[in-house]
C-alpha cells in the first residue's frame, strides 16, 4: 500500500518525493477531480495526500468522499504558502454530521 500526493505546487511534490511519496501537480478543479477519481480506484494507493488549496477547489466532493468511501484515506496537508484551517474544517464536518456546533 502506498501514499500518493496531489499538490498544487512543485515544492510540496519535490519534498514528498525526497521521502519516497510519488505524486502529481494539478491546478484546475477538473484535472484535480479526474486525478483524484483515478487514484481512488487504484488499489495500490492507501492514502491520498491533498494540499489545502486543492481541497478548497472542491470541498463538497471531498466531504462526500470522506463520508462515504472507506478507502483510500484522503488527508489534507498544508503547503509552504500559509497555514491550514484543518481544525476548523474538522469542526465543520463533525457539526454537520451530528447537528451540534462545537
TrEMBL record:
Membrane-crossing ranges are none
Top-level division of the source organism's lineage = Bacteria
Q: GO MF annotations for this entry?
A: proton-transporting ATPase activity, rotational mechanism
Q: Which InterPro entries match?
A: ATPase_V1-cplx_f_g_su (IPR008218), ATPase_V1_fsu_sf (IPR036906)
What keywords is this UniProt entry annotated with?
A: Ion transport, Transport
Family, per entry: Belongs to the V-ATPase F subunit family.
The protein in question is named V-type ATP synthase subunit F
Amino acid at each position: 500500500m502506498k501514499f500518493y500526493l496531489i499538490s498544487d505546487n512543485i515544492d510540496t511534490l519535490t519534498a514528498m518525493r525526497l521521502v519516497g511519496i510519488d505524486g502529481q501537480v494539478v491546478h484546475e478543479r477538473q484535472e484535480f477531480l479526474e486525478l483524484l477519481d483515478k487514484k481512488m480506484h487504484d488499489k495500490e494507493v492507501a492514502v491520498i495526500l491533498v494540499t489545502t488549496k486543492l481541497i478548497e477547489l472542491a470541498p463538497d466532493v471531498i466531504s462526500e468522499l470522506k463520508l462515504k468511501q472507506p478507502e483510500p484515506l484522503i488527508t489534507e496537508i498544508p503547503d509552504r504558502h500559509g497555514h491550514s484551517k484543518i481544525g476548523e474544517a474538522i469542526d465543520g464536518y463533525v457539526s454537520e454530521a451530528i447537528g451540534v456546533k462545537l
